[in-house]
Amino acid sequence: MRSDSLLRMLEVIDDYAILFLDRHGNIENWNKEAEKIKGYTAEEIIGHNISVFYNEESKRNRLPELLIEEAKLKGRAQHEGWRIRKGGELFWGFITISAIYDDNHQVVGFSKFVRDLTAKRQLEKTTEEYARELEIKNKELEQFVYIASHDLQEPLLTVKNFVELFKDEYQDVFDDNARLYLQFIDRSTERMRNLIKGLLDYARLGGQQAKCLVDCNQLMDSLQNDLFGSINATGAEIYYKDLPIVYGFETALRQLFQNLLSNSLKFKRPGVAPKIFISVVGNDNFWHFEFKDNGIGIEERYKEKVFIMFQRLHSTTDYEGYGIGLSHCKKIVELHGGTISVESILNEGSTFSFTLKV
Amino acid sequence: MKKYKDLDCVLLVDDDISTNFIHRRIVENAKIDVNVKEITSAKEALDYLTYSGKYEGQEDAPKAGIVFLDINMPGMNGWDFIAEYKKLDEKHKARIVVVMLTTSLNPDDEQHAAMVEEIATYLHKPLNIGAFAEIASKYFEEIKEE
After folding, report:
1. Testing the interface with A: which of B12, B17, B81 to mutate, by most A Cβ within 10 A?
2. Would you say A246 and A356 are in contact if contact means Cβ atoms under 8 Å apart?
3. What is the mean pLDDT of chain A?
4. Residues in chain B whose beta carbon is closer than 8 A to a beta carbon of chain A?
5. Helix A216-226 and helix A250-266: axis angle, to 10°?
6. Are A312 and B75 a contacting pair at CB < 8 A?
7. Which domains does chain B have, with CATH numbers?
8. Quick one: pLDDT at residue A317?
9. A299-357 pLDDT per residue, tens
10. Could you give the domains of chain A?
11. In chain A, where does DSSP find H-type helix?
């Protein structure tokens, strides 16, 4: 087992400190990398117990002994944690201790592999800190959108109120031109009110709500009721069955489904009744939903743009709207750990695919 | 009333009808003898310039001298329009001055516009009489009545 050639081979392995221990955890052999990682030369360390690498707390908790015990019982023990180099410097080690048996299956000693993961550990810590910072920044941004849009509502409301007063008190003296101007003001303030509301709703999505089990079949049934008017008017047929029960934010999911459905009803081809197919495939991690319609479709180059807030593909004279629905859908899907995208053929239809984490 | 050579028509391209309305008033109040055509999409503006789509066969319509182009429009936006405009046959582009209009306060847009040869200048909305008169006199030759 511990032949000379094997030892020579182990001698030159990089990144891993390789030690051979006797049955009590005393060091019998030591490769070059071990000297580098732990700081001791072979002469200095051979004969000492591995507990020299552990700090006082670990020793109090009998960690070195427990690891040896575990390796003896199970054949192998692994541990990741702070260890001490010669001179007292700390490093983050990943340790694997494996039992070595004789011909009678008796434990005669152990091999111990140690990897110095200090750099990786620091990188992980930096990444964690970065993620935390990002989360704080995101919260701030949401807060900002919320406050800003809230404050924007106020002067807008003042404009609206005074236009109403103006109309009430002076309508006798208006000519057609004046009425046209007021119509422009009305339409613009109404539009702005809706845009701001869209922003506010976006900032609020998913906040202060608990996740629960949502039966997508029931959700679709009730949405069909809500959208009865436009389903009836367009002669739409909607197909779905055996939709799953998912765990998520109920109001948000309802909005997601409703936005996709009403888009399919709205962007129908003239003279063609909408056909909407909803299907789902599940795996261990995700539900993959597909909403497929036979509507006007989306040009290839706008496939990303449709999910951006306030981005529209059609003028308000062709299709009324604010460019909000799909940006909400994107945020809702992302709240559920998923992604959303669209595939489409112009004048044939669009298929919106999204995933929700199981 | 001033009259400029080759400035028969001002094309207003903006998806917002009220903006086009205001801009029409401004152009009309500038005391310049010129037609105004309002168009609500970049696609239709290209059709107008190339006599295609709903403008097929309308070669007699007043020829655009200045295009006031909104950047932020649904579907094909101002930049997309420029990309398509670059590809047009010279005979459709001849004597046309494109002016970008925006409500955006984003300096990147202004820099971008400055780098595009086809864009004569870049203005913040709304257009005003002074700016319009200046563009007309800068790019077109006044026809003096004898």
Report:
1. B17
2. yes
3. 90
4. 15, 17-18, 21, 40-41, 73-75
5. 50
6. yes
7. 9-138 (3.40.50.2300)
8. 81
9. 999 999 999 999 999 888 888 889 999 999 999 999 999 999 999 999 999 999 999 99
10. 4-116 (3.30.450.20), 119-204 (1.10.287), 208-358 (3.30.565.10)
11. 4-11, 32-38, 42-45, 56-60, 63-74, 118-170, 176-204, 216-226, 228-234, 250-266, 325-335
What residues of chain A lie within 8 A of the CB of B74, using their CB? 311-315, 323
Angle, vertex CA B110, rays to CA B107 and CA B114, nearest 5: 140
CA distance A239 to B121: 53
In chain B, the percentage of residues whose pLDDT exceeds 90 is 65
Chain B CB contacts of A312 under 8 Å are 74-75
CA–CA distance, B99 with B66 (Å, rounded to integer): 7
- The closest of B68, B10, B75 to B41, measured between CA atoms, is B75
Residue A44 CB partners (closer than 8 Å, separation 6+): A86
Residue A13, token pair as written in the block: 């392995």
Strand ranges in B1-146 using DSSP code E only, listed in sequence order: 9-13, 35-39, 64-70, 97-102, 119-124
Q: Which amino acid is at A179?
A: R
Instruction: Indicate the SS3 state at residue A250.
Output: helix
Nearest to A315 among B18, B21, B74 (CB): B74
Matching residue, tokens 């429009």? B73
Give the one of B17, B21, B75 whose C-beta lies nearest to A302's C-beta.
B75
